[in-house]
Amino acid sequence: MTARVDKQWKDKGLTGYSTEAILGTLGHYGITLDEAGFKATASSKFPLELAIEWKPQWKGTGQFASYPYAAANELFNRLLPDEPTPMKTAHVILDLIANGLKTVAAKEDANLTGAFKHWDDVVPRLPAKGDRRDSFLRELVTFLESWAQTFNELPERLAKAGKKDEALRFALVHEVLFTDREGCMTALVRAQTGEREGALADLKKWAEDTGRDVFARYSALDAIFQLEEFEAAKPLGLAVFDAAAAEAKWGLADSIAHLLGHIVQKVGGDAAFMREVRNRLDRAHAHTGGHH
Fold first, then answer.
1. How far is residue 165's CA from residue 103's CA, in Å, rounded to a whole number?
2. Which of 141, 187, 234, 284 makes an SS bond possible with 254, Cβ 3.0 to 4.6 Å?
3. What is the pLDDT of residues 145-158, one digit of tens each?
């Protein structure tokens, strides 16, 4: 009789079960594969993608309804131990966030150096830029969602706390993970540590550059917004929105339109600018189903 996982797996976790039992349970509920088959599939997909792919054939209910993702993640860790998973990488980043917050608060038990070492160990093993990296990031951000704002703010918060070196290293974490932010997070730190004019000049140049990827232009625009350089952001925002719309990247265009709306709320604008913003909000909402 094939070994299987029992109903207590959710409480116990899967680490104590044999690979045979994990695969046997998958097979019992409709997903038949062996170790070699899993490794072959996992070479091009991450756990969440695998679980989604298995869903149409999955017959498990109750305690086993959520089993596919847990099994995929455990098998990935077990059979491909040198490959970083989104979940393992999220744990490293959450450790960075926790120690970054302790550093800002001057806690004695802060160990940001140790957290950075764990991060540096992960970086060479991250998927190369491309579709596989995009899939990795889509799954990663699901684990970081509730900490996203803190993660985004920490480079500046460290800089304001007088921790410039740590702030620059934290900015690079962002830029390594999300390559469209390259230079932009570092510029935010530079602006907080005596280089505001030069940092702002670079951000403007990047936001204006029509040869630059539109997501990278948006990252520069967003950094300008974070620096509260709202007058500079107004014309740049209109131009970057139009570039996103021209490429039919309406999710991004919607984000830009709302950034422009926030500028209007904060500092207003003349009638012509407000008409342009309203027009872009209407266009973005027409394509995304959003509302004002």
1. 12
2. 284
3. 999 999 999 999 99
